[in-house]
UniProtKB/TrEMBL annotation:
<dbReference type="Pfam" id="PF12399">
    <property type="entry name" value="BCA_ABC_TP_C"/>
</dbReference>
<keyword id="KW-0547">Nucleotide-binding</keyword>
<dbReference type="GO" id="GO:0016887">
    <property type="term" value="F:ATP hydrolysis activity"/>
</dbReference>
<keyword id="KW-0813">Transport</keyword>
<dbReference type="GO" id="GO:1903805">
    <property type="term" value="P:L-valine import across plasma membrane"/>
</dbReference>
<dbReference type="InterPro" id="IPR003593">
    <property type="entry name" value="AAA+_ATPase"/>
</dbReference>
<protein>
    <submittedName>
        <fullName>ABC transporter ATP-binding protein</fullName>
    </submittedName>
</protein>
<dbReference type="GO" id="GO:0005524">
    <property type="term" value="F:ATP binding"/>
</dbReference>
<dbReference type="InterPro" id="IPR027417">
    <property type="entry name" value="P-loop_NTPase"/>
</dbReference>
<dbReference type="InterPro" id="IPR051120">
    <property type="entry name" value="ABC_AA/LPS_Transport"/>
</dbReference>
<keyword id="KW-0067">ATP-binding</keyword>
<dbReference type="GO" id="GO:0005886">
    <property type="term" value="C:plasma membrane"/>
</dbReference>
<dbReference type="InterPro" id="IPR032823">
    <property type="entry name" value="BCA_ABC_TP_C"/>
</dbReference>
<dbReference type="Pfam" id="PF00005">
    <property type="entry name" value="ABC_tran"/>
</dbReference>
<dbReference type="GO" id="GO:0042941">
    <property type="term" value="P:D-alanine transmembrane transport"/>
</dbReference>
<dbReference type="GO" id="GO:0015808">
    <property type="term" value="P:L-alanine transport"/>
</dbReference>
<dbReference type="GO" id="GO:0005304">
    <property type="term" value="F:L-valine transmembrane transporter activity"/>
</dbReference>
Amino acid sequence: MNAPPLLAVDGLGKAFDGLVANRDISFIIHHAEIVGLIGPNGAGKTTLFNCLAGFHTPTTGRISFEGQDITGTTPEAAAALGIARTFQIVRIFHSMTALENVMVGAMLRSKRVADARYRAEQELAFVGLSHRADNQASDLTVSEQKRLEVARALATEPKLILLDEVMAGLNQTEVREASQLVHRIHQRGIASIIVEHVMEGIMPIAHRMLVLDYGAKIADGTPAEIAENPAVIAAYLGE
Ligand SMILES: Nc1ncnc2c1ncn2[C@@H]1O[C@H](COP(=O)(O)OP(=O)(O)OP(=O)(O)O)[C@@H](O)[C@H]1O
Ligand SMILES: [Mg+2]
């Protein structure tokens, strides 16, 4: 039996008034795959995430998840199906504790507070934040807040996680830890699409890279293929 791919995007476009942020983008994501999504500032990466996670309705094209059409779905429905995300600018509940923030994610699967708490503790441990469980989220460092968002996303029990610049602003050690975290997410059987400008964080761990430029996909290949692709080099050199 041929199972459908985890995610299939076909001819996706998104326009804001006159501005075309995504144009005719097609690609497939397989179960547990680690895919890097790169491109210059304004290339349309976050817009694509917003379309995949139900925050924007695409202008054209289709998105299917495990064979089910989810084009124009809501964030709640996308999360329920197994698509979780983090935000380029972290969106945590500042006045809640770290544990409570992750419990918000866990409540998607469990209405029992004790279960959600247990689940949240597991995910805090997974991202290395157990010692911060009872701290107010606003007291966490930027690096910790990014990991907190990853924990909250994982607590929703996703099949696909969309990580938007979780390595931005991190020092070398933290970038290495973030790469290892992505690899451990893969080992749990969860696919990830990682928007990242920090190449040393993504290139060593990605199975495949997608490259956007001016809203369109200009390359789709292994990190090694992407690194020597003339169109990609030109996009980054601004030619
Ligand atoms: N809600 C919106 N309304 C209008 N224009 C938008 C909206 N969201 C994004 N855009 C525009 O769409 C284009 C793509 O933006 P997007 O945020 O997707 O880029 P990006 O690749 O994530 O960039 P960066 O690397 O800087 O985060 C930009 O020109 C941006 O100004
Ligand atoms: Mg962005």
